[in-house]
Amino acid sequence: MQKNYFFLLILLLITACGSVRKYNERQNICIPPEKLKEDVDFAYAKIKEMHPGLYMYISKDELDRKFDSVKNTINTPLTPLQFYFKLQPVISDIREGHLSLRIPSKRITKREIKDLENKKGMFSRFEYYIKDDRLFIIGNKDSIEKIKPGTEILTIDKTPVSHYIKKYRRLISTDGFNTTFKPYFLKDLFFNYYVAEKGYENHATIETVFNGEKKTYRLTRESKSEDDLKKEKENKKRTEDKKINDYVAFSDSYNRNFKFLDQDSTIAYIKVKSFSGDYSAKFYKNTFEQIKKAGASYLILDVRNNYGGSLEEIHKLYSYLSPEPYVLIKPSQVNSATTPLKTNYFRKSNALQYTFKTLTYPAFFFAQTFSTYKKDGKFYYKIKADKPSKPDKNAFNGRIFVLINGSSFSASSILTAKLKNDKRAVLVGEETGGANDGTVAGFYSYQVLPNSKIDLPIGLVLVQPDISFTQTQKGVVPDIPIKETMDDIIHNRYPQLEWIMSDIKNEKAKAEKYLMK
C-alpha cells in the first residue's frame, strides 16, 4: 500500500511539472489572428450570456463597436500576453469593476515556489503611491538601501515608469465613471502586472529622485535569515486571537481591529481591511458587547483600503449598526434560472476532490436549481440579505462616522451606500472606488478562452443596496470630503480622523455647556 502511494505521489509530481512546462511553452507561442478573433467572439458571447446589467454604463451599440474594432486590429499572430493587452482594455470599457481577464503569466514549479519562499520579495517590501503617471515609495520598513519615503522611481531597468503606468492603467476595470479607484488599485497591482510581463527576476536596477537628487539602486532578491524563517513559522500559528481578528501573515497585520480612542471609552474605533468572512461573527459579537458595556457614544468605522469581500459579513455588521429593522440589499438579479449552475463546480479539483464532488453534485444541483425565482419577467437569486432583518440586541445607538476612500470597493461600497441612504452615519474621506448603486459579483463562472487559454471570471449576480439610487454612475460620495495626501501618509497624519475627533470634541463641549445652564 505504501509503495503504491509513493509511486502515485511521484506520478502526480511529474504530471504537475509537465503541466507547468507545457503551460509556459504555450505562453511563448504566437496564435494565428483568426484563432484570436474566435476568442474575442467567445469572450463577448459568454459575457452577454451571463453578466446581468451589462449595459449599465455603456450602450450595446458602442460595446458591439468596440469588440468589432479590436478584432480589426488583430492582423498578426500574438502570444497570449500580447493578446491580453489588446482585449482587456475593451473589457475594462464595460466599466464593471469585477469583470476582468486574468493576466496570463509564467507559472512556476513547486521547486521554484520553495526557492522563492526562502527569499525576500524584491518590490513587495516597499509601499507605493501613484499620482498621475508617477510612482513613489512611501514605505520602506526594512530600510532597503536606505531609500527614503517620498522617493520617486523614474525608471526600472532603464524603462520609464510612466510607460508602465499608462499601459497598466488601461487594464483596470472600474464601477461606472468612478475616478478615485484606479490610483489605489494600480499601486497595489503595478508589480503584479510587471512580473507577469518580465517574470520572477532576482535583481533590478531602479533610477530614483528625492529632493531633486537622482540616485540609482540595484535591488536584489535577498535570502531570508534563520530569524526571518523562524518568525514566519511562528506567525503561521493560528491562535484564537489571530482567527478572530483575521491575521494576515504576509503583511504581519490584522484585517480587523477594535479599540477605544479615548480614556473614558466614549469613542469606539473599528478598522476592517477586508470582509473576509472568517470568524467575523465572533469578532463583531465580542466587539459590540464591549462597546455596549462601556456605554460608548460614538463609533468610527474605518473601511478605507477595503476592497470588499463577504456579503454575509456586512449583513452581520449592519445588524449592529442599525437600531431599527432593515433590509440590506434589493433582490439580486441573474440572467436565467440556470445561472447558478454555471459556477464551474468541478473547477481546480484534484482526483480526490473530483471524486468527492461527484458524490455531492446531486445535492449541489438540487440546491442551486431551487435558488432562483422569476418575478415580472426577470430572474432573481435567493439571498438572506434581501429579507427584512432585525437589529442585534447589542446594536449601537450612538453617532456613527465612516472613513472611506477610493480603495473602498465592492462590499465596502454596498455597506456605506446603505448607511448613507439610511442617514445612519456621517461619511468622511473621498468617493469610494465601488459604485453607490450596486455592482455585479456574488459568485462567478470561470470561463477559459479556447485558443489563448486566458481565464475570464464573470460575475453572475447583480447586488444592489436597498436604497434610493443616485443614478450618478459613480461611487459613494462622502458627506465630508477630505483627501489624504502622500505627505500625510508618509508623516502619519490623519486628516479625516482628525476632523471626526474635532467634531466629537465640539459636540461634547456644546453638550457640557448646555448642561451647565
Automatic annotation (TrEMBL):
Coiled coil: none
SUPFAM superfamilies associated with the record: ClpP/crotonase (SSF52096)
GO molecular function: endopeptidase activity; serine-type peptidase activity
Protein name as annotated: Peptidase family S41
Gene3D superfamilies: 2-enoyl-CoA Hydratase, Chain A, domain 1
Sequence intervals crossing the membrane: none
Domain Tail specific protease residue range list: 237-483
GO CC, alphabetical: outer membrane-bounded periplasmic space
BP-aspect Gene Ontology terms: proteolysis; signal transduction
Pfam family, one: Peptidase_S41
Superkingdom, natural source: Bacteria
